[in-house]
Amino acid sequence: MREIEETPLPGVGVRHDYTVSDGTRVGVITHRTGRKELLIYDRRDPDTCAQSLRLDEDDEHTLAGMLGAETVSTRLATLAQEVEGLAIDWVRVPPGSPYEGATLRHLAVEPYHSAMVVAVQRDERMHPAPGADFALRADDVAVLVGTLAGIEQLASTLRGDA
Question: What per-residue string of b and e applies to 111-121 under the rule 16 or more CB within 10 Å gives b?
Fold first, then answer.
């Protein structure tokens, strides 16, 4: 079995990487909500991610089944992130987000009643329980709490996907 490197990603989750037999580096980011991303690195520069695939729960189970792995541990990891239906995730506000420069008050008027921003990490400083006048900046990491569906919806909005 190959050596797997584990890298904590403050404000995000954890990344696991290893190099497959042909020399390609692959990895998986497990977000604090349990959401996963499959990473494939550039062969010429193993520090550069060439492709990232966001996996939903069905994708995870399908891929694990294809690889012959047990999916019970994946489901248990997801359940461990939920507390009575409550989940938490850390979402980076990308440059160009429709909410870059907007206050949390503007975000609160959107119809997302099942998730909210409870803290914002800016650079190395954490802003717990920011007020309605707190303005988001590019590269801020918003800490979201709510249902998994609500968090996914709010995260998508912050990223500008929706």
Answer: ebebbbbebbb
